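Hi C.,

You asked whether I'd gotten around to modeling the 203-residue construct. I have! Everything is below, sequence then structure, no commentary in between.
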Amino acid sequence: MKQQIIDTQKDKLLGIILSNKHWIKEFLKAKNFVDLCDMPFVFKLSIETQKTMFTARDFWKIMYGAHIRYNILLHSRHGSIAYSKKCKIFWNEWIKEMKKFNSNKFNSQKLWDITDDHTSIKSFTKRFINSWIETIFSKKFNTSKLDELVEKQEKNNKLSRSKLKSDNEEKYKNWEGIDNMEFRFNNSKIIVNDILSAGREDA
């Protein structure tokens, strides 16, 4: 299985990692995708692979704020005020990180090149992402404008199933939606562990 993945995915991250036993060890030490991007072996990969990984990592860092605003809106309307306050702490921490974020190093065109190579995305979602990134990179953090973007995206995406609509009678207690974006990291980790386990059994 290991050699098959290396042969068929030699240009993919999983295939590249499996080709080097030292990289496998470092990969398995990573706790999540963001942690993986800081592993020493990553800086030995091709520049193109590094760009893809860092673009994915930074994209999640930027868009995580939208998920925080979503939960603040949701809990202020249909959930726990206490949890909404907790999310506001997350928001303030995220703003601190974004104030330090070097927007000049983020390549939006690279983001969409990667996206177009792997999936299709609805036009309204692409507009939302571009508008969110543009607003965040202005460093103004206008919550009214950002909440408007989040609410519009939720409405466009979920239509009548939108949890933010005023007549939603459900009550929420915890985080709703995505709280991390692992880019199949956990699945890849399972595959690598299974391959190592099979290798030990065959030895």
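If it helps when you're writing up: Residues 63-172 form one domain.

Thanks,
B.
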